[in-house]
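Thread: Newbie trying to understand structure tokens

Hi all, I'm a second-year student working on a class project, and my supervisor (Dr. K.) asked me to get a predicted structure for one chain before our next meeting. I've only ever worked with sequences, so writing a 3D structure as a token string is new to me. If someone could post the tokens and maybe explain what I'm looking at, I'd be very grateful. Here's the chain:
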Amino acid sequence: MKVLGLSFGRKNSNCDIVVKEALLGAQAAGAEVRFVNTMNLKIGRCIDCGGCTRDRQKGGNGGCILPDDYPFIENEIFDADAIILAAPVYVLGPTGQYKNVCDRIGPARDRAFMTLENKRREELGMKPLDERIFKDRFVGLISVGGARTENWTSFGLSGMHLFTFSMQMTVVDQINLYGSGDRVNPAFDPELMARLGQMGKNVASCVGMPRLEAPYFGDDEGICPLCHCDLLTVKGTTNVECPVCGTHGTLQIDGDKVSVHYSDAQIARARCRIGGVEEHVNEINSMVSINIEKMKQDGDKLPGLLEHQKSIVEVQKYTL
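---
Reply by user tm_fold:
Sure, no problem. This is what the structure looks like when written as tokens:
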């Protein structure tokens, strides 16, 4: 059982401390633990170059071709059975480097798409993809914000869920750790340190379970039964949507208590369920024929349609 800790904050600062404390809990539960601080790693943004797709089409594993440290992080993720992540909140949500990792591992390792790719390879007699891509993993999320008011970290935990959807990782515990400015250092808060250790034990205890049978250990059940976040998109009526999971439900109010009813069909198409990513892959694949046909019919018209934009000249970076 391998538990990976990833910190996206400054070395030896809050994110490092909370991840390490959680890893100690996992270690006490019998896990082999590894810790990586990403701050000094070069992890650039996805540039939509298509290199991973071309590599897969040729029978490769679909790794990113950009020359930076991302492949190291991806391999650590592949090896892990469970992952504990902490990211700082600078502007309401997790830091940009965290989002870079989400963007690069998400589309390239989407479980629904990878399953289709393996079927294609089986039909052609090609070597299958790295089996570690399909491993069920369990995750603990820690959003670390300095503000004492929770609403200044409102997209922290919800933004961290972006890491989990494509590869179908299961979040079993999460902490919105706002108020770090008043706390000064997590080590000054023994109750918090104990809670972090328990997170590590919670995450480790799920390894080997069928992922949809894993319990949720978070302190707050939230308004959504899947991501356990409190965000809702109101559609003008009692029809609401969880912006994290993508599920539609019906808002219900009983006195001062608000709840949402999600049908079994909606839960099955949530982003954290295989039905949700399969729906998305089918949506994307359906666009291919539309694009091909449209370009056949009207592609020659594009230069004329965009001629008026030539007056907009790109500003070039001045170099000596």
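A couple of things are worth pointing out once you decode it. Strands lie at 2-7, 32-37, 82-91, 93-94, 138-144, 170-177, 233-234, 239-241, 248-254, 257-261. The chain has a mean pLDDT of 94. Feel free to ask follow-ups in this thread.
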